[in-house]
């Protein structure tokens, strides 16, 4: 339609648009004022947070022997009903990466909400905006260990150790805690947590080049000195915002302005968390920058605590769930999973080390969406929570979590066999090898050498700064100057400028109230509104082009400067083509692992019928057709309520112990382990038939067996005795497992 053919209509459209735009501008200014006032109010609070759940304080980290600004909270059920005492407790750890606490429970559909809905006791570890003077990262790890021990002590009847959920920075924090206290923790869920800081692919992930562009971590030391021993978390937030300038400088605000009638509340809720940066001790941030961001020493097993204990992630005994996303530009999948390739040379080393690693990669969700998206909470987090007991007993190895929508065939199977998989999805853990992680892309030897050069140069520059410049800077800094510097940070200034502290905004609340009473929004067919949208898209495209050019230039400079053989030689790196770093070996751990495997190889004739059933099932599931563990098979086992030969309840802890032992026996010598099965079976034909019935029932929980899996089942049937019915009525008989 040619709008200029009807000038009166065009004039009317212009008038309507002008009124709408003016009203939106006033309402948007009022939203910014509300945001600023909220930020100023929260800055005056002792413990600001964005949790939407009620809680009780269980432990205050400030009262520990080595005090920290962390605390342990017990989340209260919204309906007042006490959680199931037999279910394992969950602890959600929030990230202290610039922002305040509470993102894991910011909405009802959240990590905390999912745990509560499943009936588990739920705890939360948060922090205060100001650190305790002198606290260190090691102090925080020590405090977290005490929090976990306290939760375990509060739930002695729980079937399993506490499950830990670590978001972003909290992910690597709980990994360090778990590596130092492997017998204390249950399964770990790492959501968007970086662990391999050099990892990534060219053309993407520019944040990993930042340390090299800045010449190392000397500027972190400078920031700590200017802050009078305090590092301002606003600087971390600013780094995140710089990654996506179109969103920071335009899209986020424009989205609210253009949809002011519907998006204001959502914007204010998010800004309540985003706009309140916390503080860290300068020593804490220096440790993070030196040891992790630039040094990348966590995935090298090169960190030691103050007592000389190696922080080796291979010491963790509990399953580790890594949840990452291709849409996450802060923690890409390579950084979330690259540590596995750093620590293990091959799949055999991973299995023999007894470590279970499960990963899931979302296709599009962004970094923050991993923690706050309702769709993610109601799918991935809900499924992980429901399957946590199964995850805890998974045999060692690498798996990918796959979520299958229930089709008609699955629904019909559930009707026949009972509800073996609650919810809308069936979770499967499909066996993967390390080549699947290598296929994600990563650094070659030359790129590794470049990052190693940055780490060496960083130490040199930091040493020069601390020797010659730091004393001068410290002599000129006072607490008052440090506070003024923090308040003048652009992140804080934009909140203060658009708040009631600005007298120029005094008339905005009254104007906004009048506008709401006389609101006249225009329709989407307004030509001037369409022009507004077109201009907005052009602004976004221009800022995105600037970002792409900037990131490409950053990468080119990094590759050129730190790829120089002269610079590499000057910082002491060999240029013989070998790997620039080598993972340290833990001889004691390797010896203990070898001794355990050797001992298990001699115990294949020990045990009873329960061990025989589990070994037989594992033998079947080791076939190529059964390379995935399905939650329906685990549910079938749980529904049987197996008991040991001495009539003890087969809880998750005991089942995990037996399953891992039997799996390693098969892994060491499969033929010997299978051939020795008759020694575990009772003499009574009925008992053997009942045991075989259980094997058939569990093995067939996911469908009819074919190929080698069917062949293996027939071999087990021959070993166990006569053909058993699909569902055996188990009678109480000595030596036979009892089942409901």
How would you describe what is shown here?
The protein has 740 residues and is of the alpha/beta class. The chain folds into three domains: 55-205 and 294-443, Rossmann fold (3-Layer(aba) Sandwich), CATH 3.40.50.1820; 217-280 and 447-571, no CATH class; 587-720, no CATH class. The chain is built from 30 helices and 13 strands. Helix 1 packs across helix 20, helix 8 (245-258) crosses helix 9 and helix 29 packs antiparallel against helix 30. It holds the Pfam family DUF3141.
Summarize the structure.
This protein is of the alpha/beta class and 740 residues long.
Give me the secondary-structure topology.
Layout: H1 7-43, E1 55-60, E2 70-75, E3 90-93, H2 111-117, E4 122-127, H3 137-154, E5 163-167, H4 169-180, E6 188-191, H5 210-213, H6 218-226, E7 230-232, H7 234-243, H8 245-258, H9 260-274, E8 279-281, H10 282-294, E9 320-325, H11 333-343, H12 347-352, E10 356-362, H13 369-372, H14 374-386, H15 388-393, E11 397-405, H16 408-417, E12 425-432, H17 434-438, H18 445-476, H19 479-487, H20 490-497, H21 508-517, H22 527-562, H23 565-570, H24 587-601, H25 609-621, E13 628-630, H26 631-640, H27 652-668, H28 670-675, H29 685-699, H30 707-720
Parallel strand pairs: 3-4, 3-5, 5-6, 6-9, 9-10, 10-11
Antiparallel strand pairs: 1-2, 2-4, 7-8, 11-12, 12-13
């Amino acid at each position: 339609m040619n709008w200029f053919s009807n000038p009166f209509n065009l004039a009317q459209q212009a008038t309507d648009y002008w009124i709408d735009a003016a009203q939106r501008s006033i309402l948007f200014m009022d939203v910014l004022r509300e945001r600023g006032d909220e930020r100023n109010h929260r800055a005056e609070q002792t413990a600001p947070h964005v949790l939407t759940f009620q809680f009780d304080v269980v432990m205050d980290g400030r009262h520990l022997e080595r005090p920290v600004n962390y605390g342990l909270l017990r989340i209260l059920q919204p309906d007042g009903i006490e959680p199931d005492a037999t279910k394992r407790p969950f602890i959600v750890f929030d990230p202290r990466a610039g922002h305040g606490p509470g993102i894991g429970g910011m909405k009802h559909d959240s990590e905390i909400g999912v745990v509560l809905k499943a009936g588990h006791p739920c705890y939360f570890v948060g922090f205060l905006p100001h650190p305790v003077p002198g606290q260190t990262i090691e102090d925080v790890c020590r405090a977290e260990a005490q929090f976990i021990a306290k939760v375990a002590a509060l739930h002695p009847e729980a079937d399993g150790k506490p499950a830990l959920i670590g978001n972003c920075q909290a992910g690597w924090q709980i990994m360090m805690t778990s590596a130092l206290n492997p017998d204390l923790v249950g399964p770990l869920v790492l959501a968007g947590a970086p662990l391999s800081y050099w990892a990534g692919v060219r053309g993407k992930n520019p944040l990993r080049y930042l340390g090299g562009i800045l010449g190392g971590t000397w500027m972190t030391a400078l920031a700590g000195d200017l802050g009078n021993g305090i590092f301002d978390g606003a600087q971390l937030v600013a780094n995140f915002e710089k990654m996506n300038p179109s969103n920071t400088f335009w899209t986020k605000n424009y989205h609210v302005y253009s949809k002011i009638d519907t998006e204001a509340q959502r914007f204010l809720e998010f800004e309540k968390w985003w706009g309140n940066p916390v503080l860290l001790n300068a020593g804490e941030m220096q440790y993070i920058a030196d040891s992790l961001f630039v040094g990348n020493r966590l995935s090298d097993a090169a960190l030691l605590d103050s007592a000389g204990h190696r922080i080796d992630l291979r010491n963790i005994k509990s399953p580790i769930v890594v949840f990452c996303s291709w849409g996450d530009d802060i923690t890409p999948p390579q950084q979330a999973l690259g540590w596995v390739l750093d620590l293990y040379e091959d799949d055999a080393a991973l299995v023999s080390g007894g470590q279970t690693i499960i990963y899931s990669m979302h296709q599009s969700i962004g970094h923050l969406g991993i923690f706050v998206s309702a769709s993610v909470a109601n799918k991935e987090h809900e499924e992980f929570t429901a399957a946590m007991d199964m995850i805890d007993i998974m045999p060692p190895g690498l798996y990918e979590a796959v979520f299958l929508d229930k089709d008609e065939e699955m629904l019909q199977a559930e009707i026949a066999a009972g509800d073996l998989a609650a919810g809308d999805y069936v979770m499967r853990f499909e066996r993967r090898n390390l080549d699947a992680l290598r296929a994600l892309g990563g650094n070659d030897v030359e790129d590794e050498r470049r990052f190693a050069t940055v780490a060496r140069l960083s130490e040199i520059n930091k040493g020069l700064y601390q020797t010659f410049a730091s004393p001068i800077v410290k002599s000129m800094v006072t607490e008052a100057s440090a506070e003024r510097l923090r308040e003048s940070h652009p992140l804080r200034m934009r909140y203060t400028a658009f708040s009631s502290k600005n007298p120029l905004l005094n008339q905005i609340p009254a104007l906004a109230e009048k506008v709401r009473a006389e609101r006249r929004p225009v329709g989407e067919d307004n030509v001037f509104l369409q022009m507004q949208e077109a201009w907005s898209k052009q602004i976004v495209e221009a800022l995105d082009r600037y970002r792409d050019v900037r990131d490409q230039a950053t990468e080119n400079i990094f590759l050129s400067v730190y790829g120089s053989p002269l610079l590499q030689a000057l910082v002491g790196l060999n240029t013989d083509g070998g790997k620039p770093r080598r993972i340290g070996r833990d001889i004691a751990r390797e010896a203990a692992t070898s001794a355990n495997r050797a001992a298990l190889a001699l115990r294949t004739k020990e045990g009873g019928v329960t061990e025989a059933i589990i070994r037989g099932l594992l033998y079947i599931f080791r076939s190529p057709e059964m390379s995935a563990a399905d939650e329906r098979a685990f549910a079938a086992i749980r529904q049987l309520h197996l008991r040991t030969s001495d009539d003890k309840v087969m809880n998750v802890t005991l089942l995990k112990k037996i399953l891992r032992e039997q799996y390693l026996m098969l892994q060491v010598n499969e033929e010997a382990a299978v051939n020795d099965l008759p020694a575990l079976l009772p003499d009574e034909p009925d008992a053997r038939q009942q045991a075989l019935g259980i094997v058939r029932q569990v093995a067939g929980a996911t469908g009819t067996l074919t190929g080698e899996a069917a062949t293996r089942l027939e071999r087990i049937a021959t070993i166990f005795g006569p053909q058993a019915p699909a569902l055996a009525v188990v009678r109480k008989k000595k030596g036979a497992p009892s089942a409901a």
